[in-house]
Amino acid sequence: TQPLILLGLESSCDDTAAAILRIPTTGAAEILSSVVFGQTALHSDFGGVVPEIAARAHTEKLDLCVRDALAQSGVALRDLDAVAVTAGPGLIGGVIAGVMCAKGIAAGANLPLIGVNHLAGHALTPRLTDQIAYPYLMLLVSGGHCQFLIVRGPDDFTRLGGTIDDAPGEAFDKTARLLGLPQPGGPAVEHEARKGDAKRFRFPRPLLDRPGCDLSFSGLKTALLRARDQVIAEKSGLTPQDRADLCAGFQAAVSDVLAQKTARALVAYLAENPATPVLAVAGGVAANASIRAGLERTAAEVSARFIAPPLALCTDNAAMIAYAGAELFMTGHHDDMTLAARPRWPL
Ligand code: KG4
Ligand code: ZN
């Protein structure tokens, strides 16, 4: 048998991405190229991703990303074995742009087409980076998602719980906006929090009083707004120290909630899967050092191995889509030209 070579495409949010992945007959998958064209600058004036602007930019950049991914990998179109593309969930204009691009390439080069769930892409990344065996527990924490998944196979997931409102990344972004910090808010809030006193403001720990692994972050944002306005009313303005203390308190609350809910998810997971004690994380929020440290400690408490892929593979990219596509392809799955873009697609 020959190694497999796949092209992956991603365009479900604000990153346009293409990647070439080589799967040898034995051993680790190899990322031959991974091109990501971020749209942050296009949306920065609007305080959030504007779907129509995102879709247009994806349409403009997709074929350039494919061209660069092919050139950087040294792979020609005729060397490809399949094309994998994010078919949802996400902003529908962007997802359609990616699916149409993939269909064009698949039809033109006569290649199998594989529609990939974006969340499966994130969830399988620890297998791409660390060859983790099934099953394992995954915490997906990004700007759009927050959920605990037991990952048993490329198309076999059990959701243990997740956010009932905002995703944590979204909460970081809103916090940054409320405090006049730049977007994306996560890195900015983390930077401020380093200079702050996490004990000055006491933020709520939503849903910790209730059983289960569901989370909530929208109340935190409201609490932050109230604390900010109270300081402003008392002192007619925010000092840099006030801002740092608010960030530190907010980050401590998010970190605390994530760690404690992860502890519960681990107990539930380990009860059924004691032989594979692994906690993996993915998503942009996993870049936060204090959140990551909290999760690492939580895993250590139950002697579980902790896996966090390198940041470039934690955030949106096409290598993870090519990888998930390869796993599906190897189990005999592929799609055809009827593949539909799906705005919602629960695992
Ligand atoms: O996974 P990602 O790149 O995109 C998706 O949401 O799919 O995650 C982006 C999110 C943004 O909300 C950003 O503010 C957050 O991850 N983020 C962080 C940090 N870096 C990025 N949140 C907290 N701390 C960080 N250091
Ligand atoms: Zn994502």
Structure in words:
The protein contains eleven helices and ten strands. It has 347 residues and is α/β, with parallel strands linked by helices. The chain has two domains: 4-130 and 313-330, Nucleotidyltransferase, domain 5, CATH 3.30.420.40; 136-311, 2-Layer Sandwich (Nucleotidyltransferase, domain 5), CATH 3.30.420. The strands form two sheets. It has a five-stranded mixed sheet, with helices on both faces. It has a five-stranded mixed sheet with strand order 8-7-6-9-10, with helices on both faces. α9 links the parallel β9 (278-282) and β10 (305-307). The radius of gyration is 21 Å and the shape is globular. Bound molecules: 5'-O-[(R)-(carboxyoxy)(hydroxy)phosphoryl]adenosine and zinc ion. Residues 13, 142-144, 169-170, 172-173, 184-187, 190, 283-285, 287-288, 315-316 line the site of 5'-O-[(R)-(carboxyoxy)(hydroxy)phosphoryl]adenosine (KG4). Keywords: Acyltransferase, Cytoplasm, Iron, Metal-binding, Transferase, tRNA processing. It comes from Roseovarius lutimaris. Substrate binds at residues 140-144, 173, 186, 190, 288.
